[in-house]
Amino acid sequence: MLFQLNEEQLMIRQAARDFAQTELKPGVIERDEHQKFPAEQVKKLGELGFLGMMVSEKYNGSGLDALSYVLVMEELSKVDASASVVVSVNNSLVCFGLEAYGSDFQKEKYLKPLAAGEKIGAFCLSEPEAGSDATSQQTTAEDKGDHYLLNGTKNWITNGGTASTYLVIAQTDKSLRHKGINAFIVEKGMEGFTVGPKENKMGIRGSDTHSLMFNDVKVPKENRIGENGFGFKFAMKTLEGGRIGIAAQALGIAAGAYELALDYAKQRKAFGKPIAEHQAIAFKLADMATHIEAARLLVYKAAWLKDQGQPYTLAGSMAKLYASKVAMEVTVEAVQIHGGYGFVKEYHVERLMRDAKITQIYEGTSEIQKMVISREIIR
Ligand code: CAA
């Protein structure tokens, strides 16, 4: 494994770093405060090709590798995790799923505008009664010949209000359990499809999280993804890549908080010298830097395996489990290093601490990652 990024990867990382500083940082505190979706910024991310990074150019994507994608996720997340989650969901959960498993018709009609950033996608698996236990879907899709009739509720859907294209997982035959699940493409505006109010969240407050209600929504048969009964595997395969993106988000949140804490510790003086020169703070910084570097290696390795066409289920879950734990620990320490300033919004670290928590919850909780990891190593 090469521990060196190539020219293209370095350029892409720099572009994301610049974008984060010039476009995301200026309004990030206000967007968090007012739960404002970063609409203009997301539009620009689309123009830069960051919303369809790994999609082939044939379908309007940027045709880049997974390592470039995690570099972008890391840089954007250092500054604004509410914006980076849009990038993650659109790339990993929506575009990847459509390119890997969609029909030619679906790729032409739905993938192209999503990869170009002209439209935003959402991935709809979680339900009021089915979060971690994803086989227990209550949303149903009844086969009516030329269409399916979709009924049910989805919860915690990222991009729920702003998306135009929704990948919805539903039961078509309860008796078959996971083999009776399918994935469907649902468009905003289809009759019977309503978006619930925006959730008032602890972190990633700028991101757009909603419940979705489906009441006798007619979904054309050509909008089912893959063979009949493929929906659960579709969700699992898609989430595998998604977990690498969220691991990179967690890494970025940790690195962003660490960089702020390091700068602050070098400038802030107490007892006659910069606090970074007090061992109590210096040792904290040493731990933070070491844990972040370990998380980075896991995240990059998972992306690298994906790029090599090798299995990445285990590596992706390990990366997400560890990076999200590091994000939580490092952001708490960053607040501590800032003292009272860490507790107020202008210094950014309290927001990063709140944002870090979701990385241990969405796209599979830490407990789910341990389930996946233990099954992989025991099997
Ligand atoms: N790839 C391919 N197939 C897989 C798979 C994978 N990674 N994981 C499981 N499967 C297959 C199994 O092989 C099995 O198929 P067969 O019977 O044909 O062999 C089938 O799926 C069922 O597998 P399990 O018996 O392992 O299923 P389970 O009920 O024990 O659940 C689980 C496994 C890993 C816990 C899974 O339910 C899971 O990942 N749950 C968490 C769901 C999740 O991540 N939710 C987050 C919501 S999305 C989100 O947060 C998006 C957002 O907005 C940000």
UniProtKB/TrEMBL annotation:
It holds the Pfam family Acyl-CoA_dh_M. It comes from the Bacteria. Its EC number is 1.3.8.10. It is an enzyme of class 1 (oxidoreductase). Residues 6-118 form the Acyl-CoA dehydrogenase/oxidase N-terminal domain. GO terms for molecular function: acyl-CoA dehydrogenase activity; flavin adenine dinucleotide binding. Keywords: FAD, Flavoprotein, Oxidoreductase. Its cofactor is FAD. Belongs to the acyl-CoA dehydrogenase family. InterPro entries: Acyl-CoA_DH_CS, Acyl-CoA_Oxase/DH_mid-dom, Acyl-CoA_Oxase/DH_mid-dom_sf, AcylCo_DH-like_C, AcylCo_DH/oxidase_C, AcylCoA_DH/ox_N, AcylCoA_DH/ox_N_sf, AcylCoA_DH/oxidase_NM_dom_sf. This is Cyclohex-1-ene-1-carbonyl-CoA dehydrogenase. Residues 122-217 form the Acyl-CoA oxidase/dehydrogenase middle domain. Residues 231-377 form the Acyl-CoA dehydrogenase/oxidase C-terminal domain.
